[in-house]
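Shipment paperwork, digital attachment
Item: protein structure file
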Amino acid sequence: MNPRIVTQPLAGNPLAAAVIAGNPPPGWYEPVPADATSWRERLESVRSDFPDNWLAKLGAAFDATGKAKERLEASSAGRGVVVTTGQQPGLFGGPIYTLSKALSALAVADALQEATGVPVAPVFWAATDDTDFKEASSTVVSIPGGAQLLRIDHTEPLGRPMASMALGDVSAQLEALTRAAGSTIDRTPIELLERFYASGQTIGSAYVSFLRALFAPLGIAVIDASHPATRAAAKPVLSAALERAGDIAARVSERNREIEEAGFTPQVQEVPGLSLVFNSASSGRKRIPIKAASKQAASEEMGPNVLLRPVVERAILPTATYIGGPAEIAYFAQVSPIAETLGVPRPTIVPRWSCTIIEPHVEKILEKLYLLPEDFRDPHEVEARVARAHLPKRVIDKLNATRALLDKQLDELSDAVAEERAPVSPAVTGGLRANLMRRLDRFERRLIAAAKKQHADIMQEIATARGSIYPLGKPQERALNFVPLLARYGADLRDEMLGEAREHAKRLVGLQARFRSLEEPVPARGRS
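Attachment content:
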């Protein structure tokens, strides 16, 4: 039996929600084409900016093979374009949204190619120049009774890009992931981890090699942001960003004020006095001060920060659109003034496909206890509700009756104190009410705690479901590693996810209803 794939709307950022709903603030975003005709115009416009040999300069940074190489070469030789998405390194490939993003890019590339006749290649930008070791050093797997955090320690000083941060020995963590996978029908993803997450690798190189091997058969190419070819191609944009660092800072600051005046919060906080260009030549990656920026010459040790990165990507790749999540959609509002200041095309962004995967054993728990996946958003509500439901009805009825009676009696006492002008203030009777009600609440919590112990088997099932749907209190897609799922269910799961992503892509490209439909949940397909 295969899992149930539940397509869901992206959530978590008010500005992104407004954009997804088709109501972006005027001028903040590059307009998204509405139909096949306007998409074809966009693709032709993007492609006209690039020479026919654009791939020759970046071929080594892709190191593409198989179907991924074929699609890249077809795009380059056939005056085509690319659709991009990306992520910073995550341990053992990272959470489910790494896979969701990659499948979204593939689905959108296919939809655009079908609708326009223009060759389109999907590209995953592996941000190995990122220095967030906390993000790159951990992942989560679901196990019976909950979720397990797998984490590695740093063997070198923090602040280094993941491309140069040594991986170290991860055999214990990989063994734990393999145990969590349990019975598998396709060990290929685990075997790829065993092959690439090995001695001599950096966190970045292991991540890139694993994704390339996993995605190449699907036709998805992976570009390494730290590769010398990528850095060399980015130098003209970095040089311009250094030369105009003060102007860029002023424009971004102005946009941040506009964002705040519109009632939103800038996704990327402003750091006064610093440019958007990093220098990684020393022991750690540091942003170049604006005062020194114009005197600096761009080098291959330099790279863009998160706001400059989309501009660089659009400048070195014929990118029709970037596929992003809520945070990325939000910070693209800050990206457009940077592109305008540099006099380069503004990058376009559209929302990625998002999902929750309900495994069969979790489905049985939900059905047995009459629960929904969203019930697990609260860290304790499900356990308390189920435990309360297992208390004797007469006890609950009497508890509720006692609370209602006490509330009524306290109302009458308060009225009497006020009417008879008793020598106490209203705060005294208010304190009495709070104290007595607090004692009743405490008594109820003790009843529920006792019920939890009495029904430990049910609490274990709830913990198992929570560990899959909301592991460690986070939405599944943002925490749970995807490799055990692919190993347990094989190509069927991947293909089902891709099928849902294709429906999403059709709406984006205009083959179905327009952008606004993306804020509405899509009915899940039948279980199999």
